[in-house]
Amino acid sequence: MIDNDNIIFLDGYILDMIEVNDSLVYINLITYEFDVSKGTQIPNQHKLVFKDHLASLASEYLESNKAIGISGSIKHYEDEEKDDEIIVNKLFFGTQNVIKIVGYVGKIDVKKNNVVRLRVATHDFYKSKGEKVEETDWHTIVAFNHAAEVIKECIEVGDLISVKGKVKTKEFNKNIRTEIYAESIKLKKKKGENNEK
Q1: 48 in any annotated domain
Q2: Are 76 and 84 in contact, with CB atoms under 8 Å apart?
Q3: pLDDT by residue (tens digit) across 136-177?
Q4: Which residue range forms the structural domain that includes residue 27?
């Protein structure tokens, strides 16, 4: 089985922190994107999860209004009562909002105005009681223009694809939902093929 990527890089400002205990800290991070057509900045809010030693570092060094950068992976919840989260694995300094995932297409939904929405599954693995456990996360990809045309012409359900883009967060029914706005899409393997491209 292919190990898939689910990597996100963000830079922004801390809105608030919730220190659950020494090994778990939640942070609400705000990032900004410049809208050229309107000449304004658009804020996006992200829920970050710091665990274990990173939680200790967050408790000791981070505070509201502090600028930070992180890398991590998105955790999606199908439960509408839960917000999507970003599990942090590194702290860094820099300005970027970039994500790359490699996963299998589960659904393709062609909308009006040359917009395509995908559901893509990535897989993570961990050990529990000595047994290897596979965990699947589903990501919503939104593609426009050229990226949308690539999907309509080349991509089918079951294909393995690579997506690079930016993370966008929206509030839906009072919950935070995370989408990936695709900037480039690459077909890595057609459904049923044995070798990656």
Answers
A1: yes
A2: yes
A3: 999 999 998 888 888 999 999 999 999 988 888 877 777 888
A4: 6-189
